Amino acid sequence: RLYQIPFSMPDCLGESQTLHLVGDFSAPAEFFVTLGVFSFLYAMVALGLYLRFHSLYSQNKKLPFADFCVTLCFAFFWLVAAAAWGKGLSDVKAATRPSSLLAAMPVCHGTDVTCNAGTTPAMGLANISVVR
């Protein structure tokens, strides 16, 4: 599915012009957050199991192995989610690059009009969110 995200940009006459970014950039973030919620819930269940039923956990040899397998699966999916988050961020950066936005503005396509991109927005905190 494609979303059209409206945003306003001023044109040369000082009037506001509405442009639409086309694309769905929410899937990687939704996957990342969903995995985080499931990881938190599993950690709470495992903590309750460790604290309440410690004797059952130490006597049954299959339970620690099952816990290890589930934790290994969560670690793998966390790596996949971090990669998806990074890809989603790079897609957002590409869609909001000033040169891409200028190319989408009809007012900049005139022969007697000069548009410049200005400065590139700071994405430092977004980059840190992928690394962490």
TrEMBL record:
Pfam families: MARVEL. The gene is Sypl2. This is SYPL2 protein. It is found in: Membrane. It comes from the Eukaryota. GO terms for cellular component: synaptic vesicle membrane. PROSITE patterns: MARVEL. It is a multi-pass membrane protein. The chain crosses the membrane at residues 31-53, 65-85.
